[in-house]
Design brief:
With 1262 residues, this protein is mainly beta. The protein has seven helices and 92 strands. Helix 1 packs antiparallel against helix 2. The radius of gyration is 66 Å and the shape is flat. Residues 1-53, 375-379, 431-438 and 1249-1262 have low confidence and may be disordered.
Length: 1262
């Protein structure tokens, strides 16, 4: 057993040895069993060698060491299996996490501290190792039992930061900034205050309303529990109908399910927040929370509350008729059912337009006394012995009677109904959701409101009677209307009227006592009652199928049957006074009937034809003169008569005869016709003579107030008067003055004939267009040439185009007309004639010139920079990037629209590299085309389209124009070693460096470089001329060099072509003119805090040697860059005393001092985590202690106390100040109090990840 390893103090045992004995060292040996670097582990006391054990607690002969280790490992695996089973049970059954956590911490402690006591080889770890293993297992126990996630990513990032994140500190050693910047020991302590809870339960905490109906058969009533976990709840239900009590007990099993559902619904709530249990009920009634029993078998005091479940309110519109008349009452009833007092909201719609919503409130039976009419709370029932019959549902009918002021479709629809408890049914939402469906029956009532008819009589009254022939009928002149704008269409009418025969009409014109009431139904507006019997007719009523109407005035009509017409004749001869013989017959007519009268008679001359005549007489007496113009025997037969009422009536045995020898007379055969005549022409008039010939006819011609008399002897009954030539224009009148017949009887005549003589002959000439008789028009379009005519239409015109000599003859009907010209040329008028006379052409306006507007043209003006070669224009070459353009000349009518194609041929590859088409608009006679010079090569500009204000582009009339333009590449220059720094001394010396450059282009070159001194606002320019090659060594004049670093950049280069290029900012070189180096602080302040970085800018040539002291100890540091930075690890005074760079051996003496202050600390509750329990209204103190430089300013938070599975939530953040090193603050509120940030006079510190917006270290200035 001597080979069994023994556990050393503070370490694991060594590997067991076999084959050689174990050497026991004396206490005075040099090699001790104490592990170096572990000051917290004491050495084992010295004991005699003989007293030491030689094997495990269980001897190896019973169970060897390997088997013991196997069984220990199997037991450890079993413990983990059990642990994971408890974790699974915790997630499923939501058991208590704290008990399980404590249980497994205890098991782990017993196992880890008990295993070394067995003294099994390889398992004999020290107490410190056992404690470390126990700590790891306890952390895993907390994470598992409280279900805290394992932050693997955070641990990995932290591990990498620990391994690789380090900086150089003032002591010239690498330190990790994390422990300095995030030193959690600066802020220690936490105080947890608990307020002992008081459980409660309340039914329906939000005073909600509930109801049941056919569609809602069950509801979930809420029970709010706070700070308690009930195991039994007792509910009492009062039946509304009979006040019967019914008790319901909710057992623990059902409550567990309700609690689980409540926790799932409130998954984001805090564990201490109240829970709402939802219990399902299916019966109406008043529910009371009678008793609540919690886990400790104690009753939780329920708050006084009640919940009423009633029948859901409902409403409907009672059905009525579908038709109404305008100005009737609506006569609609709403039936409401529910727990009163009720409120109903309904909407009236007229012809699809809503008139707005109306409502009735406080609807309840008159004899009902409901407590809900005075209270709005549901907490009305205090115990189970009250009368709740007032909550029963009642049915109430509300009548709606309003005047129907408009016609159309009226609809009453129920929108909402509310009961006294706040239950509401919204039928409008049902309509919106089920819009494609039919509306629920009873929820609305619609009917049609019809216009009322009216009627009156037109064109008939007792004062203006209606007269018709006996035995005929006539429609009663009734006119229909309505209360609307128009009469009612497509509706039958029923008309009632009174009739009194004419013999029975009273003396005052009213109906007699035996008046007859008649009713007739008219199918449409066109139908009217037919009347035939004379008498008085009066409309008494008018109606349609739906509405009765109103009779307007006049409403009475007097119908009369006048006597039939009769005629009596008497006659006498009309005697010629000169010859004493009859020349006609005068007939007197006496009538009976209704004027006007029309007499139809037939005149017949002996051996002649019958001629019918009609004579109208507008009174009861009249005369007719029967005086024929020719001599002979005449007979007259009167055949029929017509008056204002009766149609034609025949006359019997009414005839007259006479012998007529008429006196002489003459008349123009073309009487009433005005003749037209041309000037200097004569005119003829035909005259018909009557009587016994031969005759002497006298006539005169009147013109301009002058009369010319003529006397002619005429043998024949027809004579033609021919005038002399009418030499002056105007109106001539030819008047027959007298005629003398064979008997010498002279008769004076009145017949006249007129002739209008034209003052001038018709004329034709061209009008003007824009003041001239010439026009320029678009080629190919018709041109209307204006014509002017004088005379009388129509005009017949002949014209021709002089260029083609084709004569055209056209007839015109307007004095201002047009000729349509289709070809260019000069048009000439040849002759004209109007409807009466031949005319003439105005020679001054007989021609009109038509020309075509010139089409637009494009050209390129030639100059020294633009020449024409091989059918194209070639422009002088320019340099890449230079602005260039060329001009084009445009002729035509601006504005011009020009399209050109731009093509580019790369100079290096010789291939077409780009093509584009561009459009420009020019408002003048020329345009400037911007030439493209962005890339070197050959550009061609081909103008392919041209249009102006008059003409669109025509490929037929346009030839493309091409301009060729060459762009030379710009020169360029580059530094051979861009970015390199060239060293110079402050004084000129031999062997100084040159800056090699490469040039591109055609030599010789002209080069300008820019020297920019660091910190100088304006650079200096160095000019280099006539550089003969593309390789060049640049030398800078020493007078332009200054101490420090300057940047050399290329400003401009020009080659032999004259092309100049200014390169954009790009690679450059630097020159460094050395002098003694200097150090400048990057921050002006002199006070810093531990953990901050001291940064200095070094000027000179890298690397540098920096000399400084810290707390009186001198140090030297090498710095490879221009920034010297050190982390302030410890407080103290830091002074830079000297600086040396690599370009100079001189050491610059410096005295830059920075003071480093320590970070303040704060301790709450002495830096410990303490828990304090207080009662509601009690209090305690928060005790703070500080280190640092007063005054102190700190921020602390109050968070919710930690609950399993949930993170703490910050409730409030407070900031306090302290002038000393200790401070007490009284508090009374529950929560976890901890400090998150601290500041003193110089420095500050804030915890990371606290969610309070404070981080890093900040200085505090007062």
């Amino acid at each position: 057993m001597n080979g069994t390893p023994r556990r050393g103090p503070g370490g694991f045992p060594t590997t067991p040895q076999t084959g050689r004995p174990q050497k026991v060292q004396s206490p005075n040996a040099n090699a001790t069993a104490t592990t170096p670097g572990r000051p917290n582990v004491r050495s084992l006391p010295e004991v005699p060698t003989a007293a030491q054990k030689t094997g495990p607690l269980i001897p190896n002969d019973i169970l060897d060491a390997a088997s013991q280790r196997f069984y220990v490992f199997a037991f450890y695996i079993a413990l983990w299996a059990w642990r994971l089973y408890d974790f699974y049970s915790l997630t499923v059954e939501d058991d208590q996490s704290l008990g399980l956590c404590l249980k497994w911490c205890f098991f782990d402690m017993v196992f880890l501290f008990g295993i070394p006591l067995l003294e099994i080889p390889w398992l004999e770890w020290s107490n410190a190792a056992a404690f470390l293993l126990f700590t790891v297992h306890a952390v895993f126990d907390v994470m598992l039992m409280f279900r805290i996630g394992i932050p693997v990513q955070t641990w990995l990032v932290s591990l990498l930061a620990v391994l690789f994140d380090s900086e150089v500190a003032i002591n010239e050693r690498n330190v990790k900034p994390g422990p300095i910047l995030h030193n959690a020991s600066l802020i220690l302590g936490k105080q947890i205050i608990h307020i002992l809870p008081e459980g409660s339960a309340i039914l329906n905490p939000d005073k909600l309303s509930f109801c049941l109906n056919a569609s809602v058969t069950s509801i979930d009533i809420p029970i709010l529990i706070n700070q308690t976990q009930p195991v039994e709840i007792e509910l009492v239900r009062l039946d509304i109908d009979d006040n019967h009590n019914e008790t319901t007990v909710i057992k623990a099993r059902e409550l567990k399910k309700l609690l689980s559902n409540a926790k799932k619904a409130a998954k984001n709530a805090e564990p201490a927040d109240p829970l709402v249990l939802l219990y399902t009920v299916k019966k109406p009634g008043v529910y009371l929370l009678n008793r609540v029993l919690d886990q400790s078998k104690l009753e939780v005091r329920p708050r006084a509350s009640s919940l009423i479940v009633v029948k859901c309110p409902q409403a409907r519109v009672k059905p009525t008729g579908n038709n109404r008349c305008r100005h009737d009452l609506s006569d609609v009833a709403l039936e409401v059912e529910g727990t009163p007092p009720l409120r109903i909201k309904y909407r009236t719609t007229i012809n699809g337009l809503s008139r707005g919503a109306s409502e009735f409130q406080g609807l309840q039976p008159e004899d009902l006394a409901s407590p809900l009419s005075k209270h709005t709370s549901q907490a009305l029932i205090r115990n189970g012995h009250e009368d709740v019959s007032w909550a029963q549902a009642h049915t109430i009918t509300v009548s709606l009677n309003e005047t129907l002021t408009g016609s159309g479709t009226w609809e009453y629809a129920v929108e909402e109904v509310h009961d006294a408890l706040g239950n509401m049914v919204n039928y409008a939402l049902i309509d919106e959701e089920d819009r494609p469906k039919v509306k629920p029956a009873g929820m609305h009532q619609s009917f049609t409101v019809h216009e009322r008819p009216n009627a009156f009589l037109s064109d008939c009254s007792p004062q203006r009677p209606l007269r018709i022939a006996k035995g005929t009928s006539v429609p009663l002149p009734i006119q229909y209307g309505s209360t609307g704008r128009e009469a009612i269409q497509d509706s039958p009418y029923t008309v009632e009227y009174l009739f009194t025969p004419q013999a029975d009409i009273l003396l005052d014109g009213n109906h007699g006592p035996n008046a007859e009431l008649k009713t007739q139904k008219m199918k449409s507006l066109r139908d009217k009652p037919l009347i035939s019997t004379s008498g008085l007719y009066t409309i008494t009523s008018v109606s349609t199928d739906f509405c009765g109407g109103e009779v307007l005035e006049p409403a009475s009509c007097l119908l009369q049957n006048p006597p039939e017409p009769e005629l009596t004749l008497s006659s006498e001869n009309i005697v010629d006074k000169c010859a004493g013989r009859p020349i006609g017959l005068r007939v007197a007519l006496d009538f009976v009937g209704t004027p006007p009268f029309k007499v139809h008679y037939v005149e017949k001359r002996e051996s002649g034809r019958r001629v019918s005549h009609t004579k109208e007489i507008r009174s009861l007496r009249g005369t007719i003169d029967l005086a024929p113009e020719q001599a002979g025997h005449y007979s007259y037969t009167f055949e029929s008569i017509t008056d204002g009422v009766y149609a034609s009536r025949p006359l019997h045995d009414m005839s007259l005869e006479q012998d007529v020898r008429p006196s002489a007379s003459a008349r123009f055969l073309e009487a009433g016709e005005h003749k037209q005549a041309c000037i200097d022409d004569s005119t003829e008039f035909d005259v018909a003579l009557q009587g016994e010939g031969p005759w002497k006819l006298e006539y005169e011609i009147v013109h301009n107030g002058k009369r010319t008399k003529h006397l002619v002897n005429v043998e024949d009954p027809r004579y033609t008067i021919t005038t002399q030539k009418l030499t002056s224009g105007g109106e001539y009148t030819v008047a027959l003055t007298s005629i003398t017949d064979k008997m010498g009887c002279k008769e004076f005549l009145k017949a006249e004939a007129k002739v209008n003589v034209r003052h001038e002959r018709p004329k034709a000439y061209f009008g003007l267009i824009d003041g001239k008789q010439a026009v320029m028009a678009l080629e190919g379009k018709d041109v209307n040439l204006p014509l002017r005519f004088t005379g009388t239409a129509p005009w017949h015109l002949k014209y021709k185009n002089i260029d083609d000599k084709d004569v055209q003859e056209v007839t015109f009907n307007r004095a201002n007309d047009r000729i349509q010209a289709r070809d260019a040329g000069k048009y000439q008028l040849l002759s004209v004639r109007d409807g009466i006379c031949p005319g003439f052409i105005d020679e001054k306006a007989s021609q009109f010139s038509v020309g075509w507007i010139a089409r637009p043209k494009i050209s390129v003006p030639e100059s020294t920079t633009m020449v024409a070669e091989s059918g194209k224009y070639v422009k002088e070459a320019v340099c890449e990037g230079d602005d260039d353009n060329f001009e084009i000349t445009l002729s035509g009518h601006p504005p011009f629209d020009v399209t050109y194609e731009q093509s580019f041929k790369d100079k290096k590859s010789g291939k077409n590299a780009a093509f584009s088409k561009k459009n420009i608009r020019a408002v003048g006679g020329g345009a400037s085309i911007r030439a493209e010079t962005s890339q070197p090569g050959t550009y061609e500009y081909k103008f392919v389209n041209l249009a102006d204000n008059q003409y669109d582009h025509s490929p037929k009339h346009f030839s493309p124009v091409t301009v060729q333009h060459t762009v030379n590449p710009h020169p360029n220059a580059h530094f051979s070693n861009p970015g390199k720094t060239y060293s110079y001394c402050s004084r000129e010396s031999d062997g100084e460096e040159v800056i090699p450059m490469s040039l591109e282009g055609v030599p010789p070159f002209y080069l300008e470089v820019e020297i920019k001194q660091l910190g100088s606002p304006r650079p200096e320019v160095s000019v280099h001329k006539n550089i003969p090659s593309t390789k060049y060594d640049l030398k800078i004049e020493h007078r332009k060099l200054h101490l420090g670093t300057s940047t050399i950049s290329i400003r401009k280069i020009r080659d032999a072509r004259g092309c100049t290029y200014k390169p954009p900012p790009g690679p450059r070189v630097q020159i460094s003119v050395h002098d003694a180096p200097t150090a400048t602080p990057l921050e002006e302040r002199n006070d810093f805090c531990v953990g901050e970085r001291l940064s200095f800018a070094l000027s000179g040539q890298v690397p540098f040697q920096v000399y400084y002291t810290f707390e009186g100890q001198e140090r030297k540091a090498g710095n490879p860059g221009t920034t010297f930075k050190r982390l302030a690890e410890l407080p103290g005074t830091f002074v830079i005393t000297g600086l040396r760079d690599s370009a100079s051996e001189c050491l610059a003496s410096l005295a830059i001092t920075k003071e480093i202050h320590p970070i303040p600390t704060v301790r709450l509750s002495g830096g410990q985590v303490t828990e304090v329990d207080i009662h509601e209204g009690g209090g305690t103190d928060l005790e703070f202690s500080f280190t640092g430089t007063p005054p102190f300013e700190f921020m602390y938070t109050r968070s919710t106390n930690a609950v399993k599975g949930k993170k703490s939530r910050v409730l409030e953040i407070r900031t306090e100040k302290s002038e000393g090193w200790h401070l007490k603050i009284p508090v009374q509120e529950e929560g976890t109090y901890e400090v998150v940030s601290i500041k003193d006079r110089w420095c500050g510190f804030a915890k990371g990840g606290e969610g309070v917006g404070v981080g890093g270290q900040k200085m505090l200035a007062y």
